[in-house]
Structure formats: structure tokens, C-alpha cells
Amino acid sequence: MEMREERRGDALIVTPVGRLDTNTSDEFHAHLTSRLDGGVRKLVIDMSAIDYVSSAGLRVFLLAAKKLNDTGGKLALGGLNPSVRQVFSLSGLLAIFAVEPDAEKALARVTSG
Amino acid sequence: MGLPHEEAHLELTVPGSPAGLRDATEAFDRFSDAHRVPDAVRRSIQIVLDELLSNTIRCGSNGREVTIGLGFRLREKALEVVITDDAAPFNPLEAPTPDTTSSLDERAVGGLGLMLVKELVDDITYDCEGGRNRVMLDKRLDA
Predict the structure, then answer these.
(1) Cβ-defined contact of B54 to A56 (cutoff 8 Å)
(2) What structural domains and CATH numbers belong to chain B?
(3) Contact A56 B50 (CB under 8 A)
(4) Domain spanning A3-111: which superfamily?
(5) Which pLDDT score, from 0 to 100, does residue B95 have?
(6) N or C, which terminus of chain A has less Cβ within 10 Å?
(7) Are A41 and A68 in contact (CB under 8 A)?
(8) Of B25, B46, B107, the CB nearest to A96
(9) What is the pLDDT of residues A23-69, one digit of tens each?
(10) Domain residues of chain A, as ranges?
(11) How far apart are CA B42 and CA B114, in angstroms?
(12) What residue of A is the nearest CA neighbor of B101?
């Protein structure tokens, strides 16, 4: 799947493009894992170019969040469309992830404090 | 193409494989484009297809080839979807409900898919006749 990236200070903004489903989630997982293994501790995922997320995609966010938790890192998400937000809400993930209206606010969330 | 109140219908069969899942996704994309299925409905049904078909492919085949039948019918107020397969009998409505309130450390990374299916559609029924699983779904167009 197409993915864009931007470094902002010591934070990384990853922008996946398209759909996070059975077909694409392994690639997305491998990409995030390589960045986290490479030392990224402040991660923003800009969801504004994501059409929808199935449970295969949710699994990737949970794994990334656990990995960052273990290393004292931070994860925030921004720019979820209504469908993606609904799936996160139904799964109870809005309660455990930092979710902001857009990527800039998500960046502020991981770089504060 | 047609007017919104005209009934549109699509049936297809795909193999129970990752390629079959991609075929199903692409076919429903084309159907949605051609008949102007609202984005919210299209996204919900794509998620449902991903969950149900990946589950059948992963768990139901026991090493043999499985075929999956798909039917989409766009009615005036709802999209009807029928999914059949010849995999091992499995009722997705009887799947255990995962805990969606636990903390990150305790949260299981699986089990959410079939819960999403039930939440994202307005009506879902299951039966198994003649060795084929059949799941019938309704999704309201104004949802």
C-alpha cells in the first residue's frame, strides 16, 4: 500500500493511503515495526487518506501501541473519517488511543510533556 | 447505472483464497460506483466482507478448496447481501463477544472482527442447508 512519511523533530508522521484490511495490514504492520525498531518513539498516524479499517487493521494499531508502551513511546492518531471513527468506537479503542481531529493536533499530543 | 429506485443486482463466485477476497472487494467497489451506494454503506459492507471472508478462508477450509458465493441486491431503502460457502459449518452470530473495555495491556489483538460485523449491519441471519453456510445481511441506505 502507498504510505507517506514526514519527520517533524523527533516525531514521525506516517500517512497510509487507501484501506487497512486483510489485504494491506501486514504491509502496514511491517512498515510501522521497522520504524519502531529503528528508534521512533513519537509516532503520529495521519488517517486522513484511509477509507476504512477492518479488524485486521485494528490489530496493527494495537500491536504498535503495545510496542510503544513497552519502550515509553507515544502514539496518536488524527484525521479519522466517520467510518473509521465508528469502527474504533465500536471496538473500544477510542478509550485507549489518543485520537485527535487532525494530524497536527495528534503531533502536539505526542510532542507535549 | 440507472435511477436510484431501480433495483440493481450482482452475483458472483470467488475462490476461498486471498485472491478471491480481493476479487470480491473489487467487484463490490464496481457495484457501489455503478449504483451510487452511499460511502458509509459501502465502507461498512467492505469491512463485513473482509471480516467474514477472511474468517472463512483462515478457519473454514481445513486444507481443501472452498468456494464463496456472493449476492448483492440494492433495494429502495436497503442493500441486501447474501454470502454462502461450502466450508465447515460456522455460525458467526454465535462467536463470543470480545471484551472492548479492558486496558491496552490486557487487550487481545483478535476477536473484534465478528463483533464489528454484527454492529455494522442492521439485520443479520445465518442458516446452513445442504452443506452450505449462508449469511444474509441488510444494511439500510440512510444509516
Answers:
(1) yes
(2) 8-140 (3.30.565.10)
(3) yes
(4) STAS domain (3.30.750.24)
(5) 84
(6) C
(7) yes
(8) B107
(9) 999 999 999 999 999 999 999 999 999 999 999 999 999 999 999 99
(10) 3-111
(11) 18
(12) A92
